[in-house]
Amino acid sequence: MNQKKSDNREAMQAFGLVSMIGVDMASCTVGGVFLGKWLDSLWGTTPWMLLVGILLGLTAGILGVVKLLSKFGPEAGTKK
Questions:
Q1: Cα 72 to the chain's mean position, in Å?
Q2: How many CB atoms are closer than 10 A to CB 50?
Q3: What's this model's pTM, rounded to 2 decimal places?
Q4: What is the pLDDT along the chain (80 residues), one digit of tens a residue?
Q5: Contact status, residue 33 vs residue 54, Cβ threshold 8 Å
Q6: ω before 47 within 30° of 0 (cis)?
Q7: Most exposed among 1, 29, 48, 79, judged by the fewest C-beta atoms under 10 Å?
């Protein structure tokens, strides 16, 4: 019975981690799109700021995922 609870808990933790990765990537990318579109409308540089915003959003999303995963790595328990 105890093993079943442990397996269920690990599955929920994995689901939560994957969900956090998806939300982080999507929110950063969408934020970059909106920022790029806004800057394009402000400066009349269509589509260059949109492209820069997408790239910056993806970069921010990847950095956020790396930071998130570093908390769950094998050495996470030894870091202080």
A1: 15
A2: 20
A3: 0.80
A4: 577 777 888 889 889 999 999 999 999 999 999 999 999 999 999 999 999 999 999 999 999 999 999 987 776 555 54
A5: yes
A6: yes
A7: 1
